[in-house]
Write a structure and sequence with these properties.
- The chain contains 10 helices and no strands.
- It is mostly helical.
- The chain has a single domain, classed as AhpD-like (Up-down Bundle).
- The model is unreliable at 170-175 (pLDDT under 50).
Length: 175
């Protein structure tokens, strides 16, 4: 009997199509404006923009945020990221095509995102510290915490997936 109930719930999970609960961008304009302030700050960071997007994509993979995965995969592709690196990102430790700086950032981002597994270990800090200045490490930490917050907003309110278009694509399609 338990197996039958479990199978039924498993099937129901795959048939479930999410509907947006609240349009946080419309109903929570003050909160969204505050979060966008963090994005404006991060856009001026000395950390490379492709790396920031790669971190946002990886954190969104960990958190299972479909909206953010859709957004950041499109952003990454729009700035020239390869499909190969996106497809393999979940197993980046086993792949040869990520730089030491990217590996340090990914390790840092994963440790901060999976905080319930323990605090960020000293060895992870030392790896990140070798690749990033103190200011960059603060900015990287802010980028990770910000995407974690966006993931939680998008997951909580079931933001509609698939509608996002990167700014560069929007500009080209308007011509």
């Amino acid at each position: 009997m338990k197996a039958e109930i479990k199978a039924r719930n498993y099937t129901r999970e795959f048939l479930f199509i999410m509907e947006q609960r609240i349009n946080a961008f419309e109903k929570g304009q003050g909160a969204i404006k505050a979060m966008m302030g963090l994005e404006v700050y991060l856009a001026k960071s000395t950390i490379e923009k492709p790396l920031l997007h790669l971190i946002k994509y990886r954190v969104s993979q960990i958190n299972g945020c479909a909206y953010c995965l859709d957004m950041h995969s499109k952003d990454l592709r729009a700035i020239g990221e390869t499909e190969q690196r996106l497809f393999v990102l979940d197993a980046w430790r086993e792949a040869p095509f990520y730089t030491e700086r990217e590996r340090a950032a990914l390790t840092w981002a994963e440790s901060l995102t999976k905080i319930t597994e323990g605090h960020v270990p000293d060895e992870v800090y030392e790896i990140a510290r070798k690749q990033f200045s103190e200011e960059e490490l603060i900015d990287l930490t802010l980028a990770v915490t910000t995407i974690n917050a966006w993931n939680r907003v998008s997951i909580a309110f079931r933001v509609e997936v698939g509608t996002y278009q990167p700014p560069t694509l929007k500009a080209h399609s308007a011509e």
